[in-house]
């Protein structure tokens, strides 16, 4: 069964002569539990696609359905709640809140939702992220890899329908990159978590179930990864 | 120079930021220009006041025509005025104005000129003989005639400048904010510039060049607006009667003029420019502190330590926690803001409470008196119905609206020594004296020809309907009468003579009479009373009593607090009988012989505050009427003086408040702008706009809450310490603690002012937030990432 359905997605920046089509009629579906990689050259529209899928940006045209729910039919408030509950975003530069420690950053979406974090679930996740000893450290006291793990923890903690990762290893060395990918694969397998990963790195793409290639805002190829 | 090229390009492309920076420069320079123009006006007014007293730098008195010619030819003299000496001895007085900076020391110059050139030795002149030269030292200082005056002027300017610099240092934050916001936007560009070879110095120069270019627009506009604002403030201050409070001269209106000093404006402009350049330079220096890599990736905005438990966290949960942790990211600024806000709130509330206590102290006795009139007069009508003349005189002027008056007489009970005061009151006076609570009306008394009996502390005797008393027929012996009339006539004649001599100072005639001459009020009264006691005839008369009552004033245990009971002694031996002036006129006056006793009162209300001065003059012109108490005038003086102090205090409070508000706006708005990407991240992980605005509101609340608590504590401590000091110095009895200034009064004032500060802080947070919301979350994150 398809978890996500993307129909005729368009995104245009600027007007008249300055008009740039970041996404041009992009349509595809994502079944539940799939680990999907989106690759393509710079300016192909990868990040724009991810932001629209995450409800961070609105498309110029087209629709995104998650669990058959039209994401952009919602007002701004509900869109924020959608981001809080149904998607988990992982950025290349982590985007952690500097005044909150690792644990607080991870539990933030749940706290914003007015819910109390389950300490057992939190301990398990911190164990998985290997951050138990660092749970009360501020982002400035963590390494890049650790910060990205906190960012992943934040994305996973609310058990959202889909995880969207924008170059999650782009700012990390090869050892840390490998660790982060292992973590993402583990959560994909253990929790049957759907994942969409934007990447430049072919090695990372090859660790995914399916690879979509974008060029000039259009899908130029959409293949299942048979080599995995 | 590429620095200027880049600065110019940036100004052109980022019009909104440039406009914001120019606005900030305008605000800052406006304030500077306002303060300097105010200072110039103050100096100018003082100079005019000194000139008004003596319109010369030096006046050579009683010199010969040759000496006068020598004075005219002195190279230091700019202008002169030769007058014949008043003694008419053929000598001259020469008033001289000197050129600016024409001498080293005015005293030495005086000795040289007077001693050598004019042949007058000052040392030979005894100290009680008027000097041959009169120096207007203050005016010479104002006009910078000698070196010491220049030194004093520079000294004064420096003191003022230090005051300005203190304000400037704090207010520089306005411009700092603008530059900081603008530089934050370009942090990445600066990083790139450095990475392609720009030296840190060049980066600083770009910012400084930008400051210089924006100043070229902002400084002149600020100077012009500053002069305008100073003029408006000046008009307001003069309109509040401050000129009269500070300058007692009759010509206060001419002396207090608005002055614009080019020198002061140049200082204001230079200070403003320096101010902008420092800000631009400082911002440049902050920019280059980051390495190019840090600037490009904007990764240096890190937090090393946070407080886990905070008051705001406990009160407002996770939003409060985020808010207080964010505030501590700029700890120094946070503390300065809280302190200045606390101080301004405390000063605002403290000054308000003190002013209200002062007003209460002024108006309190009047309120306790329970009477409200503008002037209290006495009139010398030494015949039974002579008061009418004074009333007619007053009515004719058209300056007065209400007349409260009465005539008081003596009577004694036949069977005892108990004395009665019989008061015949006008309608207004009757209502005022009985506070409208008499058991019988004015008309009822008049129509029945009866009296209201005020029994003092005794219970009202309802059965008492008639009272037979001995009436003192106030007839003095013929000798006393004759003597009185002669002396009264002589006093009147002396007064007229004195009036001729000092034509324009009618009021002072009375003062002189009080001290030196025979005063019909003081001396005549004593003689007449003496006459009454020793020689008056006494006749029996039956007074019909319409009603009786204990005391008139309700809720007042002290019977001496009210007019009607004023005549009751402690044993209540004296009683009061009140009747109407109509009864007196209808024939009751015949009971009392030829002279009325001078226990009379005539209180009046003026029609409007504008006629007050004319009314005083009008009253003083009539020698039969004496102005005992100009309550309106005194109140006005007190209010004007209190108003002057209040304005000065408000000005200082305003400045501190401005600093506090600017700091708060600065810290809140830059805090939001600097956290742009962070706030966008929060929204990306699910924070709603509502939650974002809630955070902004709590952020504002945080400042006002802490400042309000601090200000309340400060005010209460201030009142407590003041009272303790007053009690320790026996200036206040211990039981009065809490009565001088109410402990609750400043609390309400602090809360009201905090409300305003809260609104400002919320606006400071919400406005940049709203602006940010216009761009997408992606753009907000990318602005730094």
Task: Give the structure's gist in a few sentences.
The complex is a heterodimer of chains A (228) and B (785). With 228 residues, chain A is an alpha/beta fold. Chain A has helices spanning 46-53, 76-85, 102-112, 119-129, 144-157, 174-190, 202-205, and strands at residues 2-13, 20-31, 35-39, 61-66, 69-70, 87-90, 162-166, 194-198, 210-215, 218-224.
Protein architecture, described:
- The complex is a heterodimer of chains A (about 230) and B (about 775).
- The longest helix of chain A has 17 residues, at about 175-190.
- Helices cover about 35% and strands about 30% of the residues of chain A.
- Chain A is built from seven helices and ten strands.
- Chain A is an alpha/beta fold.
- Chain A has a single domain (about 1-220), classed as 3-Layer(aba) Sandwich (Rossmann fold).
- Chain B is α+β, with helices and mostly antiparallel strands and about 775 residues long.
- Chain B has four domains: about 55-135, Alpha-Beta Plaits (2-Layer Sandwich), CATH 3.30.70; about 305-370 and about 635-785, no CATH class; about 375-475 and about 535-630, no CATH class; about 475-535.
- Chain B has 27 helices and 13 strands.
- In chain B, the strands form two sheets. Chain B has a six-stranded mixed beta barrel. Chain B has a four-stranded antiparallel sheet with strand order 2-3-1-4.
- In chain B, a hairpin with a 5-residue loop joins strand 6 and strand 7.
- Chain B is flat, with a radius of gyration of 38 Å.
- The two termini of chain B are about 30 Å apart.
Question: Which SSEs are present, and which pair or pack?
Answer:
The complex is a heterodimer of chains A (228) and B (785).
Chain A: E1 2-13, E2 20-31, E3 35-39, H1 46-53, E4 61-66, E5 69-70, H2 76-85, E6 87-90, H3 102-112, H4 119-129, H5 144-157, E7 162-166, H6 174-190, E8 194-198, H7 202-205, E9 210-215, E10 218-224
Parallel strand pairs in A: 3-8, 3-9, 6-7, 7-8
Antiparallel strand pairs in A: 1-2, 1-4, 4-5, 9-10
Helix pairs in contact in A: 3-5, 4-5, 5-6
Chain B: H1 2-13, H2 15-53, E1 58-63, H3 65-72, E2 77-84, E3 92-98, H4 106-117, E4 133-135, H5 137-142, H6 147-185, H7 187-195, H8 200-239, H9 242-246, H10 252-255, H11 262-288, H12 292-297, H13 311-327, H14 331-369, E5 375-379, H15 387-397, E6 400-413, E7 419-425, H16 427-433, H17 442-448, E8 451-454, E9 466-473, H18 478-501, H19 506-515, H20 522-535, E10 537-549, E11 574-580, H21 581-585, E12 600-606, H22 612-621, E13 625-629, H23 631-674, H24 676-684, H25 689-728, H26 745-773, H27 777-782
Parallel strand pairs in B: 7-11, 8-10
Antiparallel strand pairs in B: 1-3, 1-4, 2-3, 5-12, 5-13, 6-7, 6-9, 6-12, 8-11, 9-10
């Amino acid at each position: 069964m398809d978890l996500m359905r993307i129909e005729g997605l368009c995104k245009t920046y600027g007007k008249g002569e300055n008009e740039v089509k970041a996404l041009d009629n992009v349509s595809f579906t994502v079944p539940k539990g799939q680990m999907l990689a989106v690759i393509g050259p710079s300016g192909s529209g990868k990040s724009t696609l991810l932001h629209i899928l995450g409800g961070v940006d609105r498309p110029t045209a087209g629709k995104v359905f998650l669990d058959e729910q039209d994401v952009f039919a919602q007002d701004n408030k509900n869109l924020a709640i959608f981001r809080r509950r149904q998607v988990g975003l992982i950025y290349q530069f982590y985007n952690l809140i500097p005044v909150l420690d690792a644990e607080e950053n991870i539990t933030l979406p749940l706290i914003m939702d007015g819910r109390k974090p389950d300490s057992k679930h939190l301990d398990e996740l911190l164990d998985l992220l290997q951050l138990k000893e660092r749970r009360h450290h501020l982002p400035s006291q963590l390494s890049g890899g650790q910060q990205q793990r906190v960012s992943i923890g934040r994305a996973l903690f609310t058990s959202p329908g889909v995880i969207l990762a924008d170059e999650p290893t782009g700012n990390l060395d090869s050892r840390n990159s490998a660790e982060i990918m292992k973590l993402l694969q583990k959560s994909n397998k253990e929790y049957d978590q759907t994942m969409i990963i934007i990447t430049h790195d072919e090695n990372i793409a090859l660790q995914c179930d399916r690879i979509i290639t974008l060029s000039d805002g259009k899908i130029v190829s959409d293949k299942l990864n048979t080599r995995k | 120079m590429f620095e200027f090229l880049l600065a110019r390009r940036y100004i052109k492309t980022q019009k909104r930021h440039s406009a914001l920076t120019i606005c900030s420069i305008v605000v800052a320079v406006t304030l500077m220009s306002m303060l300097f123009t105010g200072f110039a006006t103050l100096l100018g007014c003082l100079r005019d006041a000194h000139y008004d007293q003596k319109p010369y730098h030096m006046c050579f008195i009683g010199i010969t025509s040759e000496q006068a010619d020598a004075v005219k030819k002195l190279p230091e003299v700019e202008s002169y005025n030769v007058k014949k000496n008043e003694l008419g001895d053929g000598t001259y007085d020469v008033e001289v104005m000197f050129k600016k900076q024409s001498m080293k020391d005015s005293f030495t110059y005086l000795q040289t000129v007077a001693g050598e050139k004019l042949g007058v030795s000052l040392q030979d002149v005894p100290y009680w003989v008027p000097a041959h030269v009169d120096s207007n030292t203050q005016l010479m200082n104002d006009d910078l005639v000698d070196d010491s005056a220049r030194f004093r002027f520079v000294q004064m300017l420096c003191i003022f400048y230090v005051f300005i610099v203190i304000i400037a240092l704090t207010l520089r934050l306005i411009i700092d904010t603008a530059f900081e916001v603008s530089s934050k936007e370009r942090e990445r560009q600066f990083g790139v510039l450095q990475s392609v070879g720009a030296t840190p110095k060049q980066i600083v120069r770009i910012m400084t060049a930008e400051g210089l270019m924006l100043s070229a627009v902002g400084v002149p506009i600020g100077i012009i607006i500053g002069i305008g604002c100073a003029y408006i403030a000046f008009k307001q201050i003069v309109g509040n009667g401050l000129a009269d409070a500070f300058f007692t001269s009759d010509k206060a209106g001419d002396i207090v003029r608005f002055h614009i000093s080019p020198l002061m404006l140049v200082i204001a402009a230079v200070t403003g420019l320096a101010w902008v350049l420092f800000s631009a330079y400082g911002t440049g220096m902050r920019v280059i502190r980051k390495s190019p890599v840090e600037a490009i990736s904007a990764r240096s905005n890190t937090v090393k330590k946070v407080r886990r438990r905070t008051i705001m966290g406990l009160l407002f949960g996770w939003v409060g926690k985020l808010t207080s942790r964010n505030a501590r990211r700029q700890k120094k600024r946070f503390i300065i803001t809280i302190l200045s806000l606390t101080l301004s709130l405390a000063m605002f509330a403290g000054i308000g409470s003190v002013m209200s206590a002062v007003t209460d102290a002024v108006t309190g006795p009047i309120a306790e008196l329970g009477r409200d009139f503008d002037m209290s007069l006495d009139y010398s009508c030494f015949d039974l119905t002579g008061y009418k003349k004074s009333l007619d005189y007053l009515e004719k002027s058209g300056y007065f609206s209400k007349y409260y008056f009465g005539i008081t007489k003596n009577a004694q009970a036949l069977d005892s020594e108990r004395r009665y005061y019989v008061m015949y009151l006008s309608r207004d006076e009757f209502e005022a004296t009985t506070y409208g609570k008499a058991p019988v009306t004015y008309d009822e008394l008049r129509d029945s020809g009866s009296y209201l009996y005020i029994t003092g502390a005794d219970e009202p005797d309802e059965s008492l309907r008639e009272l037979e008393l001995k009436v003192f027929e106030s007839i003095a012996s013929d000798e006393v009468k004759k003597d009185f009339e002669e002396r009264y006539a002589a006093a009147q004649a002396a007064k007229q003579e004195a009036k001729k001599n000092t034509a324009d100072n009618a009021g002072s005639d009375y003062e002189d009479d009080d001290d030196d001459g025979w005063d019909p009020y003081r001396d005549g009264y004593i003689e007449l009373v003496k006459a009454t006691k020793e020689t008056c005839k006494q006749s029996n008369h039956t007074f019909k009593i319409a009603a009786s009552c204990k005391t008139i004033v309700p809720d007042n245990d002290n019977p001496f607090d009210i007019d009607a009971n004023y005549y009751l002694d402690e044993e209540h031996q004296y009683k009061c009988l009140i009747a109407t002036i109509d009864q007196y006129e209808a024939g009751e006056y015949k009971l009392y012989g030829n002279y009325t006793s001078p226990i009379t009162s005539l209180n009046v209300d003026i029609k409007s505050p504008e006629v007050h001065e004319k009314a005083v003059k009008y009253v003083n012109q009539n020698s039969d009427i004496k102005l005992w108490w100009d309550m309106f005038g005194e109140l006005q003086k007190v209010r004007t003086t209190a108003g002057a102090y209040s304005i000065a205090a408000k000005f200082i409070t305003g400045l501190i408040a401005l600093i506090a508000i600017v700091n708060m706006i600065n810290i809140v708005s830059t805090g939001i702008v600097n956290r742009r990407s962070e706030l966008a991240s929060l929204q990306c992980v699910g924070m709603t706009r509502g939650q974002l605005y809630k955070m902004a509101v709590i952020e504002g609340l945080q400042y006002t809450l802490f400042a309000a608590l601090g200000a309340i504590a400060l005010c209460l401590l201030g009142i407590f310490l003041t009272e303790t000091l007053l009690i320790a110095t026996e200036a206040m009895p211990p039981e009065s603690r809490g009565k001088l200034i109410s402990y609750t009064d400043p609390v309400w004032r602090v809360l009201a002012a905090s409300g305003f500060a809260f609104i400002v802080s919320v606006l400071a947070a919400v406005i940049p937030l709203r602006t940010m919301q216009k761009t997408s979350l992606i753009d907000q994150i990318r602005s730094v990432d």
